[in-house]
């Protein structure tokens, strides 16, 4: 079965063949997986117990037609049901658990063994897993809503755990970036703008929509709606998965994910996802403490049709510039350019009237003394820059408004592709 909505069918059907071709070409570089876990020790695990005794109704009296009318009384089941709703209010974790669709389907023994290894791995370091869940708290409720709105399994909302440890600024040494670790070519194929001032792969809003589109599109295009095969292709590329599937089918196998022979990273991809979902499904069992996450997103969106720097927005909204930068990692130079993106994320507690003022034009904003003061303060360019994984000279030069040739001259670089992670670059001739 597929999970594509009617709206998505109409939107994607016309161009699916063209996009699929782009994706196959982009996937040749493969989707990189970004993981920061540590070594593990064994711990016991068993699938959660879903056994329950179904409530039985009240028996009819032998001659109910002759019995005196009585006031209906709630059964003990009805009473306990409503009490449980009162005593157990749901947070984002509870809603996410309810949306899991793969946890209660038994796996073949060898597949379950692969999952158990990763459960042992993650549960051996509950503090590390707690750090990742804490980092996820800013984005989890919103991502879970997007997954649910497409009727996808809730486990898909946990993919950023596997890909980036829920770090929107994560970059791999193969060039993947963002919460969903898009490779440059795949991001380009999915319409994620990428230039010197903005990188849509780092923008949580746009990259999440693109990632879910990508997963659904591949499931529809290649795998008859099989999302697990699509996730394997998300990691290794559709060509790699398709070849492994044909090989399995030639051996008389059904060709589902758990039967395929794939690159090691992809062989571990779904076991990791299953393991994280199992731990989140029952954190107390694995001595993991989950942070409180409300059911509503931890941020608000402001639609803008004019340029605004984070310094200006910080002054007007009276929130720290660091908080705005954390919510908007796609803004590489600390400013929103409506030619690239029109949505600024702000903390949820910001007053709605101030948000309305920010969304209005420059003429209205100019009347705000704090905004005007911030506007007159030019953003300072650092003297040096430490090269991060996935960086290249052209992107760094565009980010800080300098020429690539100048960067190479100032730093004695002979070949543009000779950058080393951790290298300190001088950003001026001084």
Automatic annotation (TrEMBL):
Pfam families found in the cross-reference section: LysM, SLT
Where in this protein does the record put region Disordered? 35-78
What sequence ranges are listed for the domain LysM? 383-427
Q: Which keywords, in A-to-Z order, does the entry hold?
A: Signal
Q: Does the keyword Signal apply?
A: yes
- Which SMART domains does this chain map to? LysM
Q: Where is the composition biased (Low complexity)?
A: 35-47, 67-78
* Position of the signal peptide: 1-32
Q: Where is the composition biased (Polar residues)?
A: 50-64
Q: Which family does this protein fall into?
A: Belongs to the transglycosylase Slt family.
Q: What is this protein called?
A: Transglycosylase SLT domain-containing protein
């Amino acid at each position: 079965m597929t999970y594509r909505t009617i709206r998505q069918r109409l939107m994607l059907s016309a161009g699916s063949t063209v996009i699929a071709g782009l994706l196959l070409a982009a996937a040749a570089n493969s989707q990189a997986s970004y993981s920061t876990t540590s070594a593990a020790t064994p711990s016991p695990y068993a699938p959660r117990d879903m056994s329950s005794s179904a409530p039985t109704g009240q028996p009819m009296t032998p001659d109910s037609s002759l019995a005196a009318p009585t006031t209906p009384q709630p059964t003990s089941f009805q009473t306990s049901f409503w009490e449980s709703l009162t005593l157990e209010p749901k947070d984002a974790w509870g809603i996410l658990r309810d949306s899991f669709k793969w946890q209660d389907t038994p796996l073949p023994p060898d597949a379950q063994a692969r999952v158990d290894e990763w459960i042992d791995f993650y549960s051996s370091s509950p503090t590390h897993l707690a750090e990742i869940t804490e980092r996820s708290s800013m984005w989890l409720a919103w991502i879970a809503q997007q997954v649910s709105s497409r009727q996808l399994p809730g486990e898909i909302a946990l993919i950023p755990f596997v890909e980036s440890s829920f770090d929107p600024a994560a970059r791999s040494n193969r060039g993947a970036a963002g919460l969903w670790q898009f490779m440059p070519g795949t991001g380009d194929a999915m319409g994620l703008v990428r230039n010197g001032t903005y990188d849509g792969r780092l923008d949580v809003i746009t990259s999440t929509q693109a990632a879910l589109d990508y997963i659904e599109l591949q499931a529809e295009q290649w795998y008859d709606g099989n999302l697990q095969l699509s996730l394997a292709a998300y990691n290794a590329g559709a060509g790699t998965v398709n070849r492994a599937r044909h090989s399995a089918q030639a051996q008389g196998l059904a060709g589902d994910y758990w039967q395929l022979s794939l690159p090691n990273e992809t062989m571990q991809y779904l076991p990791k996802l299953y393991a994280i979902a199992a731990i989140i499904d029952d954190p107390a069992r694995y001595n993991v403490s989950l942070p409180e996450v409300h059911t509503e997103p931890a941020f608000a969106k402001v639609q803008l049709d004019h340029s605004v720097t984070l310094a200006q927005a910080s002054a007007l909204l009276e929130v720290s510039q660091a908080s705005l930068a954390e919510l908007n990692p796609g803004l590489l130079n600390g400013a929103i350019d409506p030619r690239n993106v029109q949505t600024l994320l702000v903390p949820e507690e910001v007053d709605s009237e101030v948000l309305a003022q920010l969304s209005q034009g420059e003429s209205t904003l100019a009347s705000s003394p704090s905004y005007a003061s911030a506007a007159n303060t030019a953003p300072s360019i650092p003297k040096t820059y430490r090269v991060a994984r996935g960086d290249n000279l052209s992107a760094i030069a565009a980010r800080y408004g300098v020429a690539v040739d100048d960067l190479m001259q100032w730093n004695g670089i002979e070949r543009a592709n000779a950058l080393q992670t951790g290298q300190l670059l001088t950003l001026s001739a001084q």
